Amino acid sequence: MSELRIDALLPAEMARRAEYIGVRKTEVSDMRTFALALLAGAFIAMGAIFATTIATGAVGVLTYGVTKLLVGFVFCLGLILVVIGGAELFTGNNLIVMAWASGKVSTGALLRNWGIVYLGNFVGAVGTALLMFFTRQYAFADGNVGVTVLTIANSKVELGFGQAIALGILCNALVCLAVWLTFSARSTVDKIAAIIFPITAFVAAGFEHCVANMYFVPMGLFIKSFDPAFYNSAGLILPELTWKAFLLNNLLPVTIGNIIGGSLFVAGIYWVIFLRETD
Known about the structure:
Structural class: mainly alpha
Shape: globular
Oligomer: single chain
Low-confidence stretches: none
Number of strands: 0
Number of helices: 12
CATH superfamily: Glycerol uptake facilitator protein
C-alpha cells in the first residue's frame, strides 16, 4: 500500500520535478513559447506598475526600510501571475539548466528557449510600458508618479557595469529560489506563499531583474522622449537616461548577472546536490 502524503515535496523530489519541467518547456512550440513569454513580460510589468505607484510619495513619509518592504511586497504580483497564470519568464527558465546538465535537454534547445523567451519578455514589457504611457497614469498624484518613474529609470542606467552584474546575480538567485520553492507546493496558496518572501527580498534590497527593467527604464524613456512638457516640468535633468545607456549599461550586465545567479548559483548547485550521478 502506498503512503498517502499531503506534505510538500522534499528537496530531492523538487529537483526531479525541476528537471521534468525543464524538459517540458523545451518541447513547447516556438509560437506558443513566444506567446507565453509576451504574457510574462506584461505580468512582470504589472508588478512594476504596482510597485511604482506604491513607491510614489512613500519616501519621507515612511522609513526607507518600510517603503522598500511595501514596494517589494506588491511587486510579487508579477511572479504570482507568471507562476499561477502560466507564462514563460526568462529568469525563471534559467532553471532549465538542471535538465541540460542531466543531458535531457540539448544546448541548442536550451538556448532556443532562452532566446525566444527573452525576446517575448522584452516585447511584452516594453509594449506594456508604451500602453502605460498612453494612459498618462504617470501624471497622477500631481505628476509625482511620473517623477518616481523617471527617478527609478535613471538610477538603473547610472549603475556601474560590474555593480549591475553583481546586483543581477543576487536578484536571480532569489527569483529562481522562489520558483524552486513553488516546485514543492501542493496548492495555489502554497505557491503564492513561496513566492512572497524571496521576491520581496530582492526588490527591497535593490537587486536588478532584467525583465522588470524592460518596463522600468523604457517607461522613463517614453516620458522623457514623448512628453517633454511633463519632463521639463518635473525639474529633473537626466542626460544619462538614453536607450543606449539602457541597453549597454543596464540590460546587458543585468542579464549576464541574472544568468549567472539562476543557472549557476541555484540550478547548478541543486543539480550537483540532488541529480548528479556519482560512481
